[in-house]
Amino acid sequence: MDKLNFKLNFIRSHAQKIVLALFCLALPLFLMLLSYKTILFFTDLTADQQNTIAYLQGKEDLKPDYSGGEISHLDDVKKVMAYLNYLFYGLMLALTLILTHHKKNREELLRLFSYGGIATISAVLMIFLLSLASFNEVFTVFHQLFFPQGNWIFPADSLLIRTFPITFFITISKNIFLLSLFFGIVFISIKYPLNYVRRSRA
Prior knowledge:
Helix content is 82%, strand content 0%. The chain is an all-alpha fold. The chain has one domain. Helix 1 (2-42) packs antiparallel against helix 3 and helix 1 (2-42) packs antiparallel against helix 7 (166-189).
């Protein structure tokens, strides 16, 4: 019986570590995607930017007179955005299932929130510092990763570049990082009201 209990406790302990690791991997990515969606929604855009983003979201036809190469790249961006949407909702489901499973275990919830928040802040700061050191290189690596076909390079005077200059992406990225950082701090801070509620009920 003691051996059986030992094995069960061993399995339970390792299962909790695996779930915690998965949570710490999923949460930063989910919060950065949530920040991206939030910032994009609240950012002031020009008419051409609004129309182009609506096109990428499958809501409108393109109005700006982009070249064939630019439209080809935008179609690739549309596919990436669709995959990111699937990923976003998949992560949301996974995180919801994990939190729901532990909803009666306050200690484990506190652990998930704390480690998840720390993982988010660490990931955001690492990416932010890399971008701060060389945004152009990070920007290039990002495009090489998601658009290996190489159709993302255009002349500086092209309509797409004039519509979405590098300053647009720098501002958007900075705001996404700041909001993700805020979300990470919120997750770490959740333990304080939870601890307060637990003490008040004791």
